[in-house]
Write a structure and sequence with these properties.
about 140 residues; two-stranded antiparallel sheet; 3 helices; about 35% helix
């Protein structure tokens, strides 16, 4: 009914099938890989910063950060860690809380970041580029008596 295939022809069919399968898997893997559109701060020649420097940002944050209320006897102390992208125009995007102290401290840190003015973007070899920034924010609520 079907013509008998010689072994060379069988090998060609198997190789053809393997090539198609390999190409398809490789293409799918490349498509699934997320495209990163920003640089790591460590790779830059000039780091992003707040206008006036980081001490100015911490003054701003200290003025605007409202320590969330906590139950009696609970004092919030520690470091909140947030990450965000400083875009080419200095705007902040993709803000995320990496470490939270609870009681809404992470959300409050993001609120303060949204209030801040545009940052000075980072540069790579003189060219302004978007960059990921890791920011620790220390909270030292006074002891409640």
């Amino acid at each position: 009914m079907y013509p008998k295939l010689n072994s060379v022809f069988k090998i060609k069919i198997v190789l053809c099938f393997a090539f198609v399968l390999f190409f398809n898997v490789r293409t799918t893997a490349q498509e699934a890989k997320p495209k990163v559109s920003y640089y790591q701060t460590a790779d830059l020649t000039e780091k992003p910063t707040y206008p006036g420097g980081m001490p100015e940002f911490y003054k701003f944050a200290g003025k605007h950060f409202k320590v969330p209320s906590t139950p009696e006897g609970i004092v919030i102390k520690g470091t909140i860690r947030v990450t965000f992208i400083v875009q080419k125009d200095g705007s902040l995007t993709d803000m995320k809380v990496e470490k939270d102290l609870g009681y809404g401290t992470g959300e409050e840190a993001l609120r303060v970041l949204r209030l801040s003015q545009k940052w000075i973007p980072g540069k790579l070899n003189g060219k302004v580029v978007p960059a990921e920034f890791h920011l620790p924010i220390s909270i030292q609520e006074p002891d409640k008596q």
